[in-house]
Amino acid sequence: MKIKSMMIAGALIVASMGVCTAQAADTKWQKNHPRREQVNNRLHNQNQRIHNEVKEGDLSKGQAAQLHKDDHQIRQEERDMASQNGGHITKQEQKTLNQQENQVSKTIGK
């Protein structure tokens, strides 16, 4: 029983170290631009979903190309917004970009 407790404690320590490492992995830019980071992470995730849907045969290459184009426009808009505000986006701009991403996201899973 003591060995089992020690193994569990060791596993918890290793797991907590992984969490700390993952949190420490954020770059200075990511820490300074959390709204942009959130928007860009969603765009990255959607890109992966599009690729997976094509691989699974649920989206055609043409449909994927249109979705990638939509995401590219959102990313460009995010950059344009940031360039007008010292490299940052406002909460309202983040909300607007997320709403646009929601529209693309709904199309991916159909």
Description:
The chain is elongated, with a radius of gyration of 19 Å. The N and C termini lie far apart (51 Å). It is built from 5 helices and no strands. Helices cover 83% and strands 0% of the residues. The chain is mostly helical and 110 residues long. It has helices at residues 2-24, 28-32, 34-55, 61-83, 91-108.
Give a short summary of the structure.
This protein has 110 residues and is mainly alpha-helical.
Secondary-structure blueprint:
Blueprint: H1 2-24, H2 28-32, H3 34-55, H4 61-83, H5 91-108
Helix pairs in contact: 3-4, 3-5, 4-5
Low-pLDDT residue intervals, each spanning 5 or more residues: none
N- to C-terminal separation?
A: 51 Å
Shape: elongated
Total helical elements:
5
Helix content: over 70%
What is the radius of gyration?
19 Å
What value does the average pLDDT take?
84
Q: Biggest sheet: strands, sense, closure?
A: none
Estimate the strand proportion: under 5%
Number of strands: 0
